[in-house]
């Protein structure tokens, strides 16, 4: 027996296809550029000069170079430290603490704190970089209000503590996302369940650890997935504040990729770096996606 298609679906088939077309174009563009990035990673393509038009295949030479020269591994370590303390520990934990603390706060206090949290997120990266550079300079706010009044010499925080300053700046800029997500997640937790745990004698820590966190587990995994990807490939704030310096203290993979591809002009090697970053982010994404699954 031949199945008949619904007249409504038949008449709207082209409309559905038209609605899907932008998504298909975007997916096609992503696959196209990914294909060429992988292809060029096996070549000696350069930005300018003869190798920009007469490039040749070099096999796995670019990938071997990733692990036999210090630049990539140092940038990978710096990126790991930046992601762990800035995103996983900083934005995620602080965002959750703000969301949990402000649940029972008055509307006025909550509004003031939310505006302060959102301000960093809404500011352009260049403006945020300028503010933090000015704040941590020898004549900046920290030295003027704290260091100098204590009788100490001014400290150039960018030169002395470059990576911690960049980490703190990124926490300040990105915590709003985690706060908003955790606020919505905590609002979905039934108060009756929390009150029942309180009646059973659970301490505040036990209520959070054994009741609230397991219930918002998918939200935690979603938050970690997004902020890890964003922070792992983050470029503007760090580059505007330090340019990867002083030395190579803040040279994360995104800056190292930029330097190799456009400052040095080694597009083939830069493509290998981008493919390696894609692979690392893919592994991290699979880990977080497994967290999204309900435990058996």
Automatic annotation (TrEMBL):
The keyword Membrane appears for this protein: yes
Keyword Transmembrane part of the UniProt annotation: yes
Top-level taxon: Bacteria
Residue ranges constituting the ABC transmembrane type-1 domain according to the UniProt record: 77-290
GO cellular component: plasma membrane
Membrane topology listed for this record: Multi-pass membrane protein
Any Pfam family the entry gives: BPD_transp_1
Listed InterPro entries: MetI-like, MetI-like_sf
Family indicated by similarity: Belongs to the binding-protein-dependent transport system permease family.
Protein name: ABC transmembrane type-1 domain-containing protein
Phylogenetic lineage: Bacteria, Pseudomonadati, Pseudomonadota, Alphaproteobacteria, Hyphomicrobiales
